[in-house]
Write a structure and sequence with these properties.
zinc-finger, metal-binding, 2 domains, binds zinc ion, zinc, mainly alpha, globular, C4-type zinc finger protein, DksA/TraR family, zinc ion binding
Length: 122
């Protein structure tokens, strides 16, 4: 794995940890559950646990978008491990994802053009 991939991997893991903290604070805000115990779970489990416990629409929406982002991060991490030559390429059109975009969101799966086309169709 080259330096670029190492760097991206670090960023992805860091972001995942950040998201885990966001989920913890959501839990803490909404419940009096002892989060210390929960944080030994990995981030994915933490989000699932939070979704089970917090059945409030407002929070569920937030958790769902966090969960989707974590899935994208895991996906990007797997890609870095298994086929790093494909990392940074749009999964739809195969073009190189804009550097700026990849820098801000290393978990991006699509280039800006594809992403905006997909958003429009939704
Ligand atoms: Zn594309």
């Amino acid at each position: 794995m080259d330096n670029y991939c190492e760097d991206m991997k670090k960023k992805l893991i860091q972001k995942k940890e950040e998201l885990g903290k966001v989920v913890e604070s959501l839990l803490l805000e909404a419940t009096d559950i002892n989060v210390g115990e929960l944080s030994t779970l990995d981030t994915n489990h933490l989000v699932d646990t939070a979704m089970d416990m917090l059945d409030r629409e407002q929070i569920t929406g937030k958790l769902e978008s966090i969960k989707a982002m974590i899935a994208d991060i895991d996906h990007a991490l797997a890609k870095l491990e298994k086929k790093s030559d494909k990392f940074g390429l749009c999964e739809r059109c195969g073009n190189v994802i804009e550097n700026e975009r990849l820098h801000a969101m290393p978990w991006s799966r699509y280039c800006i053009t594809c992403k905006s086309n997909m958003d429009k169709r939704r």
